[in-house]
Known about the structure:
Layout: E1 4-13, E2 26-34, E3 38-43, H1 49-56, E4 64-69, E5 72-73, H2 80-86, E6 87-90, H3 103-114, H4 118-131, H5 147-159, E7 165-169, H6 177-192, E8 196-200, H7 204-207, E9 212-217, E10 220-225, H8 227-231, H9 234-240, H10 246-256, H11 268-276
Parallel strand pairs: 3-8, 3-9, 6-7, 7-8
Antiparallel strand pairs: 1-2, 1-4, 4-5, 9-10
Helix pairs in contact: 3-4, 3-5, 4-5, 5-6, 10-11
The structure holds adenosine-5'-triphosphate and magnesium ion.
Magnesium ion (MG) binds at residues 49-50, 169.
Amino acid sequence: MNTNIISLKDVTYRYPHAPGELPPAIDGIDLEIGEGEFVGLVGGNGSGKSTLARLLNGLLVPSRGEVRVEGLTTGEHANLNGIRETVGMVFQNPESQIVATSVEDDIAFGMENLGLPAPEIERRIDEMTRRFGLEKIRRSEPHWLSGGQKQRTVLAGVAALRPKVLVLDEPTSMLDARSQRQFRKLVDELWRSGTTIIYITQLMDEIAEAPRLIALESGSVAFDGVPGDFFSGVELLSKTGLEAPLAARLAAGVRDHGYTLPDGILTLTDLVESVCGR
Ligand SMILES: Nc1ncnc2c1ncn2[C@@H]1O[C@H](COP(=O)(O)OP(=O)(O)OP(=O)(O)O)[C@@H](O)[C@H]1O
Ligand SMILES: [Mg+2]
């Protein structure tokens, strides 16, 4: 196991103006995330995913307990700039993260804020537009782009800052199926090149193959393990209000009709291969 890059100790978060009788949004979470991990984070609406995401880079600070990023607590104001450089965030709606009037200016924005030298900014814009398929539209106004192009612009701008950790909060929920797959693949490439990824989604297909899956329920960790174990646990699924990926449900339906299929089918590729033989 690699060294931990993020650690949470007994973290509770209660929104300041939430009525006192409501349970806290995050309720006593202990968690360690190792450098280089890919963690899928799931849970029903209101289970605390976005709150947890915001606790990870100090946008929110725990009401009780402690979040540490590379050993530095988010509770100390002086640590926050460094922590926000380490942990990049991508949110659901790209509109909320696009600030400039062209794709390349938008990618440059964060780097300019960090005070990187102009030639380095230029170099990274070239690299990011190539890597994220934005070369042909680098001078376009983000306003005119498709949702998928906008979200790739946001990802390029965040990745250009080379954060060690990237937290993505339902980044594909406004994209069509093809853009979703394309975006998810780009995130995988960032992970393979060493970025620690925390990927929040309601689309179980997106995290079916994640090495680690965490499921939240009422602000607590209901599951932390491999997706196969989560999706085969009927009780866990009903407790968290989630559904197994389509391929797993299809496989279960086929088994119910008396056919034999191997365990652990989570993707359509798994299903097709077990039906047709490898
Ligand atoms: N700004 C806020 N002020 C008060 N309560 C909030 C605020 N944001 C979220 N909450 C509450 O905190 C709890 C967790 O919300 P959170 O947004 O973290 O859930 P989520 O898992 O991201 O849900 P979703 O799937 O809908 O995005 C909910 O009960 C919600 O009502
Ligand atoms: Mg949310």
